[in-house]
Specification:
452 residues, mainly alpha, 3-stranded antiparallel β-sheet, 14 helices
Length: 452
């Protein structure tokens, strides 16, 4: 399906590609490999957790409790149920494991996944508070209809993660589904918060990186455009829903209006009275008007599908920001290595190529002794060797990140095209059905009028 926003190029990094390894213009960089969590190998579709256990968020419950500062609060808890699929296939009735989770715990899980797997487009959570609402819908996050839609969205989030070839193998995610007590402690023990990049650091990298990867730049622009287009589409849909709701509800007054009209007509009075009576008793138009509540409620589920990809746009940008941070880190390491090599050369030759405070100090207070220069050169040579090894490591890590990230981006694109195509087709079918129903209603009304 062609997207409304121009998608970035689908080109993949060439095997063994080493863009500017010597001058620091490699695809990316980051912390040393030892600090990165070991990434599990991608699972096949048959090995995905979603193929092994059945996951549902079956119930939402309003609760009252104490928050972190010991103040009373009202919140919603969601019941997660899991059941092994293998035993069901063997004809056995496997027990259902269930536990309750708050929305904030879903947020903690997703934040952990974002930090632990920065190269993955992590599925988004449903909105915490209603957005793009029209007048009949409540913006209250405790509204039963909104809570129900959010329950469906949370279940969809779990199924997305359980179906992902990498995320589905994460032990913390499995514990989230199966271990009620001590789960938060397990997450905090991973220390993922310490590995999270600050917004200021990310913003700094965005503006100061010298050699951005064109593919990720295009992807970031695409995600911005996709978010803008879907936001506009949702705003248009909300305005249309408002108008439709008003128009349909007015249709419910036809029976009363025709009955009142018949009172002032002599020749047409009986026909108008009959038509008004038919509309009230037969409920032809009244049923048509009342159906708008169900129609717009069904539309809201299609709107939620669009909102998921509205939030997916931010997940795409998160991958792009991580790549910018790695690239900026690599460029700073390359710049530092170049500076040390220059210092070493200046000490060895006794010449200063550029103006520096060190050069001025030497002229004012005399040159260093040969022994001092030799000691400094030795230290610099050791630092240069460490810097070269670190730069090589960062280049390798950067290329691994690009390879893994682009593979997941391609997977996401296929998923997005398939999901949005199905959603838009279903929405069109629903609108066609609604219009056909309207045509039938007014065809019946026409027959009533023709008998006047």
């Amino acid at each position: 399906m062609e997207s409304a926003a121009a998608e970035p190029s689908r080109s993949r990094p060439e095997e063994g590609e080493e863009e500017g390894e010597a001058d620091g213009a490699a695809p990316g960089s980051g912390p040393p490999p030892a600090e990165q969590p070991p990434a599990p190998a991608a699972a096949t579709m048959e090995d995905c957790l979603a193929k092994k256990i059945e996951i549902t968020v079956s119930e939402a419950e309003k609760r009252t409790g104490r928050n972190a500062v010991n103040m009373q609060e009202t919140y919603t808890a969601y019941l997660i149920e899991t059941r092994a699929i293998e035993s069901q296939n063997e004809g056995q009735c496997s027990p259902v494991d269930s536990l309750w989770r708050r929305y904030s715990e879903f947020e903690l899980l997703r934040n952990y996944l974002l930090v632990t797997y920065p190269h993955i487009v992590v599925p988004p959570l449903p909105e915490k508070r209603a957005d793009f609402v029209w007048h009949k819908l409540s913006a209250d996050n405790m509204d039963p209809d909104f809570v129900e839609r959010r329950r469906i969205g949370l279940e969809n989030f779990l199924l997305r993660v359980a179906s992902h070839p990498v995320l589905c193998q994460d032990n913390i995610f499995y514990s989230f589904l199966t271990q009620e007590g001590g789960w938060k402690e397990m997450v905090n023990e991973t220390g993922f918060q310490l590995k999270a990049d600050s917004r200021l650091k990310a913003l700094n990298a965005t503006f100061r990186v010298k050699n951005p990867d064109k593919r990720f730049t295009e992807l970031k622009h695409y995600s911005d455009e996709l978010q803008s287009i879907i936001s506009h589409l949702l705003r248009v849909r909300a305005r249309v829903a408002d108008r439709l709701y008003g128009v349909y509800k007015v249709h419910g007054n036809y029976g009363r209006v025709f009955s009142e009209w018949s009172a002032i007509e002599k020749e047409m009075g009986d026909g108008l009275q009959s038509a008004g009576h038919h509309m009230d008793v037969g409920c032809i138009v009244t049923r048509y008007a009342a159906s708008i509540d169900d129609i717009l409620e069904e539309e809201e589920h299609y709107a939620d599908q669009l909102k998921e990809y509205l939030f997916y746009a931010e997940a795409l940008r998160a991958v792009c920001r991580k790549h910018e941070l790695m690239q900026y880190d690599l460029e700073m390491a390359a710049q530092d290595l170049t500076s040390k090599k220059q210092q070493c050369e200046e000490l060895a030759t006794g010449t200063v190529r550029t103006f520096s405070l060190k050069g001025m100090t030497s002229k004012l207070f005399g040159q260093e002794t040969p022994e001092q220069r030799e000691a400094k050169i030795k230290v610099l040579e050791e630092q240069i060797q460490e810097g070269e090894e670190q730069l090589k490591s960062k280049n390798l890590e950067g290329r691994d990140f690009v390879k893994s990230a682009w593979a997941d981006i391609e997977r996401f694109k296929e998923q997005k095209n398939r999901d949005l195509k199905e959603a838009l087709i279903s929405y069109a079918v629903m609108q066609i059905s609604m219009c056909k129903k309207g045509i039938q209603v007014w065809t019946n009304a026409k027959e009533c009028f023709s008998k006047m």
